[in-house]
Every structure is written in C-alpha cells, then in structure tokens.
Amino acid sequence: MNTIDVREAVGRAHREEWARLVAALTRRFGDLDIAEEAAADAFAVAVRRWPDDGVPPNPGAWLTTTATRKAIDRIRRESKRDRKHRQARMTYDDRPGTPEPIGDERLRLIFTCCHPALAMESRVALTLRLVGGLTMAEIARAFLVQESTMGQRITRAKAKIKAARIPYRVPSAHDLPARVSGVLAVLYLVFNEGYLATGPGTDPVRHDLTAEAIRLTRLIHALVPGDGEAAGLLALMLMTEARRTARLSGSGALVPLGEQDRGTWDAELIAEGHQLVRRRLASGEPPGPYQILAAINAVHTSARDVRDTDWPQVVALYDQLAALDPSPVVALNRAIAVAELDGAEVGLALVDRLGDRLAGYHAYHATRADLLRRLERDDEAHQAYGRAIELAGNTAETAHLTRLRDRLPVAHNAPSATVIPEQA
Description:
Belongs to the sigma-70 factor family. ECF subfamily. Keywords: Sigma factor, Transcription, Transcription regulation. The chain is mainly alpha-helical. It contains 20 helices and no strands.
C-alpha cells in the first residue's frame, strides 16, 4: 500500500473513529485529557506503523487497543493509577436508579462538553475538538482567536469539568429539557463548521462533521420529541445537507443557492425536513429561531427555480427571526432577501447600516460587492470583493468570490449571482 493510500486510510479512520474513541476512553478512564491525548497518540502510531504493517482489517479496534495501552502507560508513569480509577467511577456516575434514555457514548461526551457550567465558547470548542476532531488551529480560526488562546480555553474547560466533577452521562429526564437548548446551539455550530469549513488546509465541505451533527441532533430529537427547537434544527440541517453535492463546482468553487442544479438535491432529505416543519406549524406553538430558519429553508427548497422563490414570505420570516434574534447577521440575511424583493439599491442601504458591526465578517463584504456589482458600481464592487476574499477562510468560497471579482469588467449584463445565505 502506497503512502497516499495509507494517508487516506488514516484520514478516514480519524473521521469515523475519533469521537467514538475519545468517548470510550473518557468513559473508561474518567479523564478528558487522558482520553484526548491517548487518542491522538494512537493516530500518531498509526501514521508511523500502517505504511509498513498495512492498514488493519478493523482500524477502529486497532486504534482502541493502542489508545487504551497509551492511556494506561501514562497513568502508570504518573503513578496516579488508583486516584484516576476512583475519579473514573466518580465522573462516569452510572449509579443504579439513574438510567440513561439512550446509551450512546458520543451522546454522553457531547452532554459533558455542553454542560451549562461551561461558557458557551468553551462548550463549542470542546465539542469541535473532542467530538468533531478538529485541530486547535481550525478551532482557533473558527473563533477568530490565536491558537494559543484557544488552547488555553480548552485546557481551562477540561480543568473545570474535572474540578466541578461534571458527570459523564446523559442528564436525567427531569434535567433534560433545560440542557437541550445548550446542546442544540453547539450542534448547530458544529454543523456550520462542516457545512462551510474554516480550516485553510481542510476540505471546504466536511461531510463527516455535518453527518455527525445530524446524527446527534436526531438522537436529541428522539430524546425530546416534543421540543420544537430540536425538530426545527433537525429540519434545518436536513434541508441544508440535501444541497451538499450541488454546492461545489467541478473546479471546487462554491455554487450559490440561486445557481445550483436543483435536480441534484436530495429529495428524501428535503421531504423529511418539510414534514418536520409542517408538524411544528400544526402544533400552533410559537416558533423559536431554529424553526424559523427551517421555515425559510423550506421556502427556498420548495421553489423549482430561484425565480419562483416566495421572497415576501422569506422577508416576513426574517422579520419574525429578527424579533427573536436582533443580531447583525440576521439583519444582513434579511437585507439580502429585501434586495431580491425591492431591488439592489434598497438592499444596499440596509447592508451599509451594518458596517460598524460586521466590518470583519466576509459575508458582509461579499454581499455589498454583489449589490454594488448589480448597481454597476464596479470600482467599489472590486474593493468589496477584495476585502471579502481577504476575510474568507473557506477555499471554495474564496474561489467563488475571486471568480465574481474577475468577471467584473464584463459582468454588467450577467445574471444575478446574489450571495443568498445558504443557512437561511
């Protein structure tokens, strides 16, 4: 087996086994540091040995055995074996009378990473690292902070889990509803990282992360079937994932929603997402943000062509969302929809009001660039595209923006390439 084949095998094993491996080691040893380091050591050994020994028939079992040995060796070296074993029993907290609704190791891990005792940024960072397997550099880029800063943040979060004796288990039925919203917020951000990956050396779309986020969200939805936001987030993810294969061109550039081949969308995922949206509407309960975002996605995926999009309905839904979440990003997405309904000049006026709050956000500059292009203000559009390209961290998005900028001299009569928000 050549080096490229081995590298692909290791990469595939990392995508498929990392979260399960860390979860299993955490359950056994009761220590996130030991679990993460032992898992990383096991993959390092695989990189060294698999080229000579060959990829084992069951990579997951091989990695588990290797990581377990590494963890035990570390405990022995530190001469803390008895204390670690006691801590494992305390952290695992699997006492009689507290059965878990779903016995999934990765679900235990995500509820630990998303514990309310931790700050939201720490929850997301831990989940991306321990469940998603992202590197520290990739997570730091997603948070727009230095890698050393992110490393310290994750180290402090793991230390707090240990000091506060946060149990490694799915919450009881009594505590579950209050804990779900925090987990959903983390899963949404994990899905977004896979949907439009930020790492400069990673694939622009990371199906492993989107698939894991959907899998875990399905588990949460099964835990609390009456929770509207869990259903809404699942619907949102499914309808977004349905468009995955249409989102990249043959050259690896991002294809905006309005230009995608809708015949390649996954009809089953869209139908499942629409059904979830309809059920929530039929419940008569006031929708939360995820349900509204899912409804917006349902409008987009119901149109056979971008020209058939019900833009008044999209704007109305954004009005509802803005009432719940008056963030500048929501306002930007609403402005994009308004531009489709009332024209580029009206949309640009709304976008320009957000400059102070979104100056470091690439989508703000990309949106301005597109609207300026449509208004034939080419010099300003060129500058805006340049700033968007500087800020964009995704290779496919950078390629798309570069293509649009390079078309500016002859783009006056081209079809609109509006940057319709993919997540909206």
